[in-house]
Design a protein that fits this description.
61% helix; 22 helices; ABC transporter transmembrane region fold; 595 residues; alpha/beta; Rossmann fold
Length: 595
């Protein structure tokens, strides 16, 4: 930024200096008789004249001397070369001032994207249950791009233009303070005209960005549900829906673009009006012989005045460009200012491992603005034991296990590990003890090796292969052309459901957590795949504390305790045989599956 200021100052100085050559050139062409010397040299140390008078007089004297020595034509040629050199210096400084700002502009945008991404990673799961994924993507792409286009691109204008305006106005005042005062009286008209254009731009830009978010959300839904769209022959319906959203976005963008397009011609017209008024006023004074300024100096004044219009116009463009970007800033700030209520305590208690028991003490939970999902849950899970959760969909099973790694915090009660509330530990320490295998294997567009070693720093190939063998995954991996270096595609699209699940299990095995959460890990698999995956799960859960959610009761018959959930409460608990004898909810579920 310091370089930008210095180079812009030099650019303004060279620009003014090049324009001053217009005066002697005009005098030579129209007003100077080379045979009649008109100027005598003023000594620089003389106190009889002002610095301005000495500078102007001596400049004329040197030109007069050159005309006498070289002749008018050669002098004109030399002045033209000098004008070209000063213009080259001016444009070089102008380019340099913009070039040194590019790293700043691009760096600001990069930092903003990184900060939004980091913030997204740090926010709790509850935030995303209230947001559309496509909307978040739109804020990170479209809105950040709009900030780059509207605000950071205005940074060099905001540095350059004040410098140019100060230097040009100073030159105007030195040339003729009377004419400059008259000019300043006309400027507010131009400012008023530009402000009228920019007033509604912020709200219109905000609306356009909202419509863009809706477009991105529909695209995200379409890509995620493409199989269903094709299965239900709903392509035309989705096309109409997307076209409607695109038309709404187009209307919003059209209003913004129309308002933007009107700014340049309006500023051009108002600037020309100002030049016309000043030209009439100054010309009238010169023609009436009531003005100290001669005609060449007046033309120089008009050239400088016209030059000051460009930075004023760029200021006005920033005046309607920045509000447009501020609408995007507000949308990005909604993510950046989102409160993360899953925070570490001020003085966290150490959590080196899991030694004894997990306890749910009167736990209740409700989502923000929703009804109570869990009600007064009391449960004890000793180390090394397996506890299974069963019940109909919506009974609160998944919500219950999500509370253990603090994806959400309990509304009432407490969850304790070895007698200490989990909210008293660092989130990172807590989650390092827990491994997850979900119904939908969440994999990344990367190699098999990187998916298995995900989250385990410094994992070796031998460790990954050992984990894959335990998960019954090694054989099918070796059948791939590149083995463990095979890319599995978006969300593991190049693998079957059973293969994806075994990669997911291998990932949990490599992490080697003392606490394991299984969320319906086999419910989406066919019988053969389920058998292979179940064998892998049995190896994984053998020596670990396990909380398993299951719809297929056959997979949790051997659990140390089965908790039956209904409408957010544990209504039955016990081993498989004990629950059958109760002849309640569990017996009914078991009979339905047996049938």
């Amino acid at each position: 930024m310091v370089w930008a200021v210095v180079l812009n100052i030099l650019s303004a100085v060279f620009n003014i200096f090049s324009f001053t050559l217009i005066i002697p050139i005009l005098n030579m062409l129209f007003n100077v008789d080379p045979d009649t010397p008109k100027y005598v040299f003023y000594a620089w140390e003389s106190t009889d004249y002002t610095f301005k008078e000495k500078l102007v007089n001596n400049a004329y004297y040197y030109v007069q001397d050159m005309i006498a020595f070289y002749g008018p034509s050669t002098t004109l040629f030399l002045l033209g070369i000098f004008l070209g050199v000063t213009t080259l210096l001016k444009t070089s400084c102008y380019f340099g001032s913009s070039a040194v700002m590019i790293p700043l502009r691009t760096g600001v945008v990069r930092d903003l994207r990184v900060q939004v991404y980091n913030k997204v990673l740090s926010l709790p799961m509850g935030f995303f249950s209230q947001q559309k994924k496509g909307d978040i993507i739109a804020r990170m792409s479209g809105d950040v791009g709009q900030i780059e286009f509207s605000i950071t691109s205005s940074l060099d204008m905001l540095i350059k233009n004040p410098i140019l305006i100060v230097f040009y106005f100073t030159t105007l005042l030195v040339t003729s303070w009377q004419l400059t005062l008259f000019t300043i009286a006309v400027v507010p008209l131009m400012a008023w005209g530009m402000s009228a254009i920019g007033k509604k731009l912020k709200s219109e830009s905000h609306e356009a960005q909202v419509k863009w978010s809706e477009t991105m959300s529909q695209l995200d839904e379409t890509l995620g549900g493409l199989r269903i769209i094709k299965a239900f022959i709903a392509e035309d319906k989705m096309k109409d829906r997307f076209l409607k959203t695109c038309n709404e976005h187009r209307q919003s963008v059209r209003r913004v673009a129309t308002r933007q397009a009107s700014a340049h011609p309006v500023s051009e017209f108002l600037g020309t009006c100002m030049i016309m008024v000043v030209l009439w006023f100054g010309g009238t004074l010169i023609l009436s012989k009531q003005f100290a300024l001669d005609a060449p100096s007046f033309i120089f004044y008009m050239v400088i005045l016209y030059s000051v219009l460009q930075p004023l116009k760029e200021f006005s463009r920033a005046g309607y460009s920045i509000p447009q970007g501020m609408a995007s800033v507000e949308r990005v700030d909604k993510i950046m200012n989102a409160v993360n209520n899953i925070a570490d305590p001020v003085e966290p208690k150490p959590l080196a491992g899991f030694n004894d028991v997990i306890e749910f003490k009167g736990v209740s939970f409700c989502y923000e603005g929703g009804k109570e999902v869990l009600k007064d849950i009391n449960m004890t899970i000793p180390k090394g034991k397996m506890v299974a959760l069963v019940g109909q969909s919506g009974s609160g099973k998944s919500t219950l296990v999500d509370l253990i790694p603090r994806y959400y915090d309990v509304t009432e009660g407490a969850i304790c590990i070895d007698g200490v509330d989990i909210r008293d530990h660092r989130v990172k320490d807590l989650r390092s003890l827990i491994g997850n295998v979900n119904q939908e294997a969440i994999l990344f567009n990367d190699t098999i090796f990187n998916n298995i070693s995900f989250g385990v720093e410094g994992a070796t190939m031998e460790q990954v292969i050992e984990a894959a063998k335990i998960a019954n995954a090694h054989d099918f991996i070796m059948e791939k052309e590149k083995g463990y270096d095979t890319n599995i595609g978006d969300r593991g699209a190049k693998l079957s459901g059973g293969q994806r699940q075994r990669i997911s299990i291998a990932r949990a095995i490599l992490k080697n957590p003392p606490i394991l959460i299984l969320d319906e890990a086999t419910s989406a698999l066919d019988t053969e795949s389920e058998k292979i995956v179940q064998e892998a799960l049995d190896r994984l859960t053998g020596s670990r504390t396990t909380i398993a959610i299951a719809h297929r009761l056959s997979t949790i018959k051997n659990a140390d305790e089965i908790c039956v959930m209904h409408e957010g409460r544990i209504v039955e608990r016990g081993r498989h045989e004990e629950l059958l004898e109760l002849n309640g909810y569990y017996k009914r579920l078991n009979d339905m599956q047996a049938l």
